[in-house]
Design brief:
alpha/beta; 2 domains; four-stranded parallel sheet; 6 strands; 42% helix
Length: 202
Amino acid sequence: MTYPEMAGDVAAYVETLGPDPVDILGHSMGGKASMVLALTRPELVRRLIVVDIAPVPYRGGAQEPYAAYIAAMKGLDLGRISRRSEADAALAGVITDASMRAFLVQNLESIEGGYRWRFNLDAIAANMSALTGFPELDARFEGPVTVLAGELSDYVRPRDEAAIRGYFPQSRITVIDGAGHWAHADQPARLLKLLRAALGDG
C-alpha cells in the first residue's frame, strides 16, 4: 500500500479509457497518489487538481493521530456493535473529532451478525510510514496543476510551496476560504466553483 502502487492502479484504469490524457483530481491521500501518477506517467495526465495535500512527508501535527486511530478501530469489538452510532461512541475516547469519526464509521459494512470494516486496517497500519510520507522522485510534471488548500487546514503550508513548485513548475495554489482539510464537506459550493474554474468550465 504505497503511492507508486496506487498510482499504478490509477494508470492501469486510465489506460482503459483510450489514448487521450485525462484530468485527474485527488484529495488528501488520493492527491498524493495523483501527484505520483503525474510525475511517473505524465503522458496520461492532461491537468492535475490536488485538494489540500502537498508532495511532502507529514510527521506530527494534524497527521500524528492516525496510527492511534487505526489502533482504536482494530481494537473495536465489532461483534458487540449493532449500530454505527455505537461504534462512534466507542471511538470517541481516541478520535475526538466528530466529523472524523463520522467519516470513519461510514466505512463499517453491515454483514450478517454485525459489522466489518470495508478497508484493510492491517495493510494501512503496516504501511503508515509510506502513507504519511512521499516518495523521492527525480521528476517534474510540466502540465497545469491546481492546488486547492483549505484555509483552516495545516496540510498545505507556506513552506511546502518550494516542494510543490519543484515537482510542478506550472502549479497554481489557491486557498479555499473557510475550509479545513475536508473542503468538500466544509465549503462544497466554493470548492465546486474552484474546480470548474480549474477545469476551464467557468
